[in-house]
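On clarity, I found the account of how folds are encoded harder to follow than it need be. What matters is that the chain and its backbone geometry are given together, residue for residue. For the editor and my fellow referees, an illustration may be useful. For illustration, here is how one protein appears when written out as sequence plus structure tokens:

___
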Amino acid sequence: MKPASRLAGIITALMLVLLLVGCGHRNVRALPEPRRGEAVARPPADDRDAAPVTPRDVSNVPDAVPRLEPRARYGNHSPYTVLGRSYQVLPSADNYVERGIASWYGTKFHGRLTSSREPYDIYQMTAAHKTLPLPTYVRVTHLENGKSVVVRVNDRGPFHDNRIIDLSYAAAVRLGIQAQGTGLVEVRALNPADPGQESTVERPRIGPHRVYVQVGAFNDRDNARRVKDRLEDLGFKRVFLDRVISSGHVLHRVRIGPTRDAAEADALTARLAGHGMTSVAIAIE
């Protein structure tokens, strides 16, 4: 073979190798992201999501059935950090119950791997939670319409202020919150080893609820009063101080509200953060 022909053959072979490597690289990048909600996740403002263009009927999608499972190999590392915040995974889901605002996630994450490395399916009864062990089974009850579902928590999130759980699209539809995007809920962990536990639990009150932004709870009333005065000096309205007994201790709470909806609570939370007050919570009554 002539030198020129040999050189052309070598160049062709090299180009073929580079092409194959390039294709392989694209295939790797096309795989689902390793986890949803890692420290490199985009902030919620850039987190555009949607319902399916032609949604399936989910009215007959069954609830998740609690069963004994070992902790997932992935997604239970503690503490972990997302978007500059650190989260501590609970050692157990025993006796966990919380009320707050639920959201849902849809087609943007469909098919991607959850934090426990299971593919997310918008038509399965699953959810994401920041601190419950993976997996955990929970009953989610819509406090305004009484609808409830059992979901399997297998993902981390939602990393958005004022949200306590991120539901699959199917679960959101079943609860009736998919159109509005959020809903007031109670989240109660279920123990697969005790199927009858729910029969002893008092059902939550169903109907209109009031939503407050709680800025703090203090042992000392004077400290609470100073925070209340500062908020009013900053121009916040409907600030009040009340007194409750929690675990045998008197607490003086500083709250703003009630708010009209989750959007107003979000706006208040963002405004408070602008003044350096980031340790706030949503209270539902």
Remarks:
- Confidence is low (pLDDT under 50) at residues 2-46.
- Residues 1-31 form one domain.
- Residues 104 and 167 are 4 Å apart (CA to CA).
